[in-house]
Amino acid sequence: MSLSEIMTITIGFHRSGMNCFKYYYEDLQRNYRSEFPAMVHYARFIKLVQQAFAVLLAFLKALLGKPTEYMFVDGTPISVCHTKRRYQHKVFKGLAQSSRTSIGWFFGLKLHVILNTQGEIVRLAITPGNSSERKALLKISKGLVGKLFGDKGYVSKKLFDHLFQQNLTLYTKLKKGMKQMLLGFKEKLMLMKRSFIETVFSSIKSLGSFEHHRHRSPINAFAHWISALISYQLRDDKPSLEKALNFIP
Questions:
Q1: Do the domain assignments include residue 59?
Q2: Among 31, 105, 166, 207, which residue's beta carbon has the most beta carbons within 10 A?
Q3: d(Cα 237, Cα 224) in Å, to the nearest integer?
Q4: Could you count the other beta carbons within 10 Å of the beta carbon of residue 113?
Q5: Per the domain annotation, does 96 fall within a domain?
Q6: What CATH number is given to the structural domain containing 196?
Q7: How high is the pLDDT of residue 145?
């Protein structure tokens, strides 16, 4: 099979509405053989996905959106197994870690994303689940300028000063006891719209194909997640704040 066919199949899975890749692939073999005449056995295809990993990564990088004046940052967990089975889990040994979110504990990795107001992913990183949001932001924000909005997890004077030196201003909600800073009308509105990034995460995970516990290879898992992000970037109906910005004086 050609690289283009492998990429089409892996990316198309996230548009299929199915949550099991094997059933999806077997359905293609039965009903769409004329579109993919060189289709191989499922086990062979899984190995071919590993060969396409680098190209998938390059394709995602080419699809990254352009920075806008206002941007949003946040992270979302990627669970790789139930927390009770974390000591028996071997596939992501040395990569996955336990951590806690607002909805409870999870064992896995974490996806960090910077979005523009058009709902496009500008920068991203996948880190162990217990990694600091602030450290991840330092890495993925290099070279960006503008105004960045995040939650209380990004509150740090050191981080703010570092980003400010590169002309990137970080805005967050204040923790208890912190002094209120002066904000313009647009900044206040954008801070209220910070949950916009949660809408994007929900959109990426909505079909149930992004996050599952059946991975048997780290490379295939990363190829799976990258394909999902490519599928999102290619969508024409991404959540957007552009219309809301047009009404702000």
A1: no
A2: 207
A3: 21
A4: 22
A5: yes
A6: 3.30.420
A7: 94
**End-to-end Cα separation, the chain, in angstroms:** 54
Q: What pLDDT shows up at residue 176?
A: 56
Report yes or no on 19 lying in a domain: no
Total domains, the chain: 1
Span 208-248, pLDDT tens digits:
678 888 888 999 999 999 999 999 999 998 888 876 666 55
Residue 98 corresponds to which tokens in the numbers above? 């336990």
